[in-house]
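Design a sequence for this backbone.
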């Protein structure tokens, strides 16, 4: 395996499957099986998941809701998704821990860096819920922050598209895909990979990001094996 310890970033929308909102149990089960393949090979896996399938703080704020309140609701949505993913992983026979940036002691452990790293060393998948625990920060920022804290080798951003393109491939058929691109080129070309705060944090800490299609079975194994799947952003 090319990578020993990974941080997998999943969007909340990824859990919807073909639904308009909510959680698709079939999609969760598929993700769990893909994750089980790599954990059985000794890869240590941490996961940060978004909450956009349930609630988006920014969307709430645009409709007149207080932004801080909206972001707190979004954090709770990520915990709901984390619990659903934990259940699916454990159904697949994978020992899992859910840690949250906001204290919900009845359902999850609080985030403690050393404890998270110990879980990973013991072969448990660790899901980080609640974002960073702060309003105005996205789950992309949470993913990069946690990846740095647990000393992950790479951030794997699982999306619906198979990499980074010159334009949105779902809207522009002439869009060209990059196999590799530097952080500087992403910024210069104005490409959207993560929000600016998260992207800059990753760049400053020399932490590579790979954007790939998580919905294609077997892609996760290919990525951690070092195959050129998706787009790698590096220095």
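Sequence:
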């Amino acid at each position: 395996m090319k990578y020993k310890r990974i941080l997998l970033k999943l969007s909340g929308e990824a859990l919807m499957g073909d639904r308009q909102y909510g959680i698709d149990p079939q999609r969760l089960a598929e993700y769990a099986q893909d994750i089980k393949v790599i954990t059985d090979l000794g890869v240590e896996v941490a996961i940060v998941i978004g909450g956009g399938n349930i609630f988006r703080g920014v969307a709430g704020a645009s409709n007149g809701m207080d932004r801080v309140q909206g972001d707190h609701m979004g954090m709770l949505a990520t915990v709901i998704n984390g619990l659903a993913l934990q259940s699916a992983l454990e159904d697949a026979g994978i020992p899992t821990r859910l840690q949250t940036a906001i204290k919900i002691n009845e359902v999850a452990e609080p985030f403690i860096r050393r404890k998270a790293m110990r879980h990973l060393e013991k072969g448990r998948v660790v899901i980080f819920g609640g974002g960073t625990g702060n309003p105005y920060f996205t789950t992309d920022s949470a993913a990069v922050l946690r990846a740095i804290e647990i000393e992950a080798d790479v951030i794997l951003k699982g999306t619906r598209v198979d990499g980074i393109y010159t334009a949105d491939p779902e809207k522009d058929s002439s869009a060209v895909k990059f196999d590799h691109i530097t952080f500087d080129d992403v910024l210069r070309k104005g490409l959207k990979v993560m929000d600016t705060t998260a992207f800059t944090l990753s760049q400053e800490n020399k932490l590579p990001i790979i954007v790939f299609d998580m919905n294609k079975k077997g892609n996760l194994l290919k990525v951690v094996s070092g195959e050129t799947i998706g787009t790698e952003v590096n220095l």
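The chain has one domain: 5-234.
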